[in-house]
Write a structure and sequence with these properties.
The protein has 389 residues and is α/β, with parallel strands linked by helices. The protein is built from 13 helices and 13 strands. The structure holds pyridoxal-5'-phosphate. Belongs to the class-I pyridoxal-phosphate-dependent aminotransferase family.
Amino acid sequence: MPKPSSRISNIIPSGKDGWEVHFAAWQRKEAGEPVIMLSVGDHDFDTPVETVEACVAAVRGGHHHYTPLPGIPALRDAMARISTQCTGVETTADEVIVTPGGQAALYAAVQGVLDRGDHAIVVAPYYATYPGTFRAAEADFTVVETRAANGFQPDAAAIEKAVRKNTRAILINTPNNPTGAVYTRAALEGLADVCRRHDLWLLSDEVYWTLGGGEHVSPRALPGMAERTLVINSMSKSHGMTGWRLGWLTGPADFIALTVNLNLVTTYGLTDFVSHAAIEALNNGYGVREIAERYAGRRTVFLDAVRGMNDVTVRGSEGGMYAMLDISAIEPDDEKFAWAFLDAEKVAVMPGSSFGEAAAGHIRISLCQPEDVLREAAQRLRRFASSYR
Ligand code: PLP
């Protein structure tokens, strides 16, 4: 075949990406071994039945056509209302654009603020697709680590040191995947200050905002930040709709108007009947409270079972769908730990180092399993920790 573009070839450089343990565990489970999968971030339950019924009604009701490029007006209204709640800033429909999932909202944000060769700063540990999203824009990026001992909170001084002449944006994620850290107001105020003084965009991935422990603070609400913050949002986690591909980007109306052209050349709008189901799900809050309560319950059950274990320390783990455990006192090489834990106890976890240096010596536990399964996994961890040589 003729040569593909270097742009597409470079999005994900070949090599190891830390998912080897997960894929091996999956194969063993498929082969019939009683493996507990705590390595992925998709719900173990289906979308709320009311949302499914709304979608069936929309299909039967003839919603089979193209939709307006920025989204059906009623859907933009509903998303703007949720953005108002999420960010604490009154948001109107012209400040949101509908995208097929939070990932596509992130893609639109990165394409919208970075030219080729521009520079961005990414706070680590971060969600695995971030580097590829910058590479797709042919942008350069610097990873600034947080510290486990500091609960993985971002440090404005360390971030400011990474600012260059061509830096245009900082990307953060709170509540965080993979650490479960919920960024504090003070940490975000420090970041906002850096953004204002260096005239930077702040890209704020808040897809887990309903699953936070404590107060969710959006940097969009901080003084002078609404004009330079782009919030990535999604129905995947909050409404139990990962496979439906529904997200949105919130930002200044003039910027959002430009991103409509991205929808023109990529998706040409969202699926009609899915949009109508989403309007119902957003306006009625289908599943939101139940899902948040379910994850809060799971987090409490799992962390209670883990706290007090010798040589295992909980870090971050305040919100989102994950818990982060420091296991370096048992085995400093987290990848070795993850393989040995899978072999000995048939529990699949993600090695922390696959999310960046700060999470080395840790394992990420996905809370996407019922409470009894999480209790059993914690028991297996206790047994493994006490017998590991
Ligand atoms: N951002 C973060 C931090 C995530 O963890 C995910 C998915 O796991 C996404 C964005 C993308 O979510 P979606 O495209 O399903 O909305």
